[in-house]
UniProtKB/TrEMBL annotation:
Family: Belongs to the glycosyl hydrolase 5 (cellulase A) family.
Key words of the record: Glycosidase, Hydrolase, Signal
Annotated organism of origin: Rhizobium setariae
The protein's name in its UniProt record: Glycoside hydrolase family 5 protein
GO biological process: glucan catabolic process
MF GO annotations: hydrolase activity, hydrolyzing O-glycosyl compounds
Length: 357
């Protein structure tokens, strides 16, 4: 989520929204398709640590989940705040917040969609960097061990280590990612797919740039997963500085080229990739065409891409946010036209996508 978006939300989130609860569940799903075609349903990462449910933050409603399931999306990337789920480092998870997380997961499962758990913290806890004295790697590993135990070996739940590590040395982030992954595989005994970002907001366009030490593309090649079931997560926007804040698509060709270059890196190293965030305004043909071009890169290279989740939607998103594809009273947002071919065409099902354990 961008700085601009956070400012909009801070002003807009003044009223609570009641969550629609669903008690229905289904047995652990063998996913309908082998590739993720998903949506970020934002809301549980809103506000400050603590906060009141349905006043300061919310989890996705039944209405919203059902809408995106009806459009063919098969995955929800589910952002939330680490500090709410674990109010004290190295201590048990908060029972009430775990309950809300579980309700959201079951609500999504009821529509036969997968869930990506996304601590949306930019490699920070209460403002302090992971791998620092105040938030040591052991604390990050402890958090993931506790969280992973909730869904260990339930393969419709995927573990996204962290949203957009930012302004953190790559060596520091790599150590933290390795320790968290070791805890997931060891202490939690979980073999779920893990999504691993780089630093510098994990941009595809900057994957080979030495921004915080070595380039992501050099350092993250040393990432270690004892379970060997992971994919590298990148984000990519199309505006002037690739931040998603400028409400234009001036760098659309560069954004598509960035995904193509990342595809080559994945293939060269024998890795899998995942496009966790991408989005653009819906009011211009150029933007719609560029979004489709980005989706096409992932769909045309299923030997290395596990799929994508569009940013953004959610019950509390303001209608003025141009990347938002939460439906309006008038109907669908125009960006769906770029995503629809991939949502409806599953002709390659089971053939070309990397297998998910």
């Amino acid at each position: 989520m961008t700085q601009k978006t956070r400012k909009i939300l801070k002003a807009a989130l003044t009223a609570g929204v009641a969550l629609a609860m669903s008690g229905s569940t289904f047995a652990q799903a063998t996913a309908a398709t082998p590739c993720f075609r998903g949506i970020n349903l934002s809301g549980a990462e809103f506000g400050k640590p603590g906060g009141k449910i349905n006043k300061d933050y919310t989890w996705p409603s039944e209405e919203t989940v059902a809408y995106f399931a009806s459009k063919g999306f098969d995955t929800v990337r589910l952002p939330f705040m680490w500090e709410r789920l674990q109010p004290k480092l190295m201590q048990p998870l908060d029972k009430d917040e775990v309950g809300r997380l579980k309700e959201a997961v079951e609500r999504i499962r009821a529509h036969r969609m997968r869930i990506i758990l996304d601590p949306h913290n930019y490699a920070r806890y209460n403002g302090h960097l992971v791998g620092s004295e105040l938030v040591p790697d052991a604390a990050f590993g402890d958090f993931w061990a506790r969280l992973a135990k909730l869904y260990a070996n339930e393969h419709d739940v995927i573990f996204g280590l962290m949203n957009e590590p930012a302004k953190i040395p790559i060596a520091q982030w790599l150590n933290a990612a390795n320790q968290a992954t070791a805890a997931i595989r060891g202490k939690a005994g979980a073999d779920n797919l893990i999504l691993v970002p780089g630093t510098a907001w994990t941009g595809a366009h900057s994957w080979m740039q030495p921004i915080y030490g070595e380039p992501n593309g050099v350092a993250m090649a040393r990432f270690e997963d004892p379970g060997k079931n992971f994919a590298f997560e990148v984000h990519q926007y199309l505006d002037d500085d690739f931040s998603g804040t400028k409400n234009n698509c001036s760098r659309s060709d560069d954004a598509v080229d960035a995904l193509k270059s990342f595809t080559l890196w994945l293939r060269e190293h024998g890795f899998r990739g995942f496009l966790g965030e991408f989005g653009a305004p819906g009011g211009k043909v150029r933007c719609i065409d560029a979004l489709k071009g980005m989706v096409d890169v992932t769909e045309d290279n299923k030997d290395v891409w596990t799929g994508w989740t569009y940013w953004v939607a959610g019950d509390w998103w303001p209608a003025t946010e141009e990347l938002n594809i939460q439906p309006t009273a008038e109907g669908d947002r125009p960006q769906l036209a770029a995503l629809k071919p991939a949502l409806s065409d599953f002709s390659a099902e089971g053939k070309n996508c990397p297998s998910l354990n």
